[in-house]
Amino acid sequence: MTLVAERRETAPRPHHPLRAEVVRGFGPWAGAAVLLTVAVALGAAADQWQGGWAETRERLHTTAGLLGVPLALAAGCWHGGRERRRRTEDLLAASARGPLARLLASGLPLVLWVVAGYAAATVLALLATWYRTTGDSPYLVAFLTDVVVLASAVVAGQVVGRLVAWRLAAPLSALAGYVVIGMLTYGSDNNSYAPLSPVVDGPTNSVPVWWQPIAMAAWAGGIAGTAVLAYAARRRAFALLPLAAVIAAGTLLVQTGDGLWHTSPVARRQVCDTSSTPQVCVNARFEKLLPQVTDALSGLTGRLEGVQNLPVRFEDRPGRPARDEVELPMLAPIGWSVVRGELVDPREYAWAAGMALYGRSECDEPDPRLDPVDSAVEHYLAASPSEKVFDEHLADRGEAGRARLRARVAARARLEAMGEQDRRAWLSEYFATTDRCDARGVPTL
């Protein structure tokens, strides 16, 4: 009796029935496929999102909806037809578990693996952005919404796989999902159903209203819940409950439209360096770029020291600048002026800032007599890195082009030859006239 008792005490405990589904079979492969797909898609365009938290959120959200959802549908569909391929449908139907319990026991481990694969890709993306961050903070609500959408796609695919006895059902379900999402997202400029797409995310500098993630989760989860209950519930009328949630959430999303997103509180603010004239301000989303921007514009602002009639600051907020401000050259979208948290070309950025000061951008056809004067100011404050190329092209345009180039070169030389006080006074007079499109009142050289 003692020996039997000892053997009973040392006998291994039976494993949970779901353990085999979780650690073996198709689930780990599906999770690895999601991880690889999302990671490769993100890595191929890393220069367009790394360093910006909003850009990282947008890229993850787009990749999860456009690539992750079709893959999750295909994985669920393939897994749903497993019993039919193994010819064990009749055996399982005779078991004590009902259809709903069997469906959930088979599908939940796959959901866990797909979500785990996407979560791993998300962690890698967040680490990559944290390493090169330009400011702001992570947006985790979008990740939670993506998780619900991916899980719903797996479950819906599982139902399709059990209903459709065809080996091509899995790839075709992925193709169908991709087409439907593409039509919802990019169908037309006035597509009123775009808010139903798991890809649409609003402008980069925006955040959703507080209930939008809840409505999207109800929309996606309700579709999966309706499919599951209509297929496997003992009382299929229960499927009307998630169907009602789908209708309510979908109606709310469609009717709200563009009102689902508003400008992020962070994007409405800016941080400034007030030590120069004009002051240099960057959007709070890029606050860690302020030292780089200030350094890039230091040559420009240094030459403007003591000059009057200048804008108060370079501003970087949504909307048009105030009358006493001028717009800072764009830092967004990432991948143009800024790549992986670094200004790509500080000289070109300084030139663009200078053009905002004296570019006469509101003039359709500036007076040709202004050309030598504007060119001299541009050359002195922040010459374009391509100035030599522009001059060569001008020289190749016949006698008229060469005469224009000679006038530019002479004006540049005269401005540089001035004394500090005289040049400062001349520039003060010049910046009082930068809003004019004719030569009246503009100082000459």
Give me a quick take on this structure.
The chain has 19 helices and eight strands. With about 450 residues, the protein is mainly α. It has a four-stranded mixed beta sheet with strand order 3-4-5-6.
Radius of gyration: 31 Å
Shape: elongated
Classify the secondary structure makeup into a structural class. Answer: mainly alpha
Total beta strands: 8
The helix count comes to 19
Low-confidence regions? 3-7
Listing every helix as H and every strand as E from the N terminus to the C terminus, the arrangement reads HHHHHHHHHEHHEHEEHHEEEEHHHHH
Helix fraction bin: 55-70%
Whole-number mean pLDDT: 88
Give the biggest beta sheet: 4 strands, mixed
Provide the β-strand percentage band: 5-15%
Distance between the termini: 114 Å
Give the strand line-up of the largest sheet. Answer: 3-4-5-6
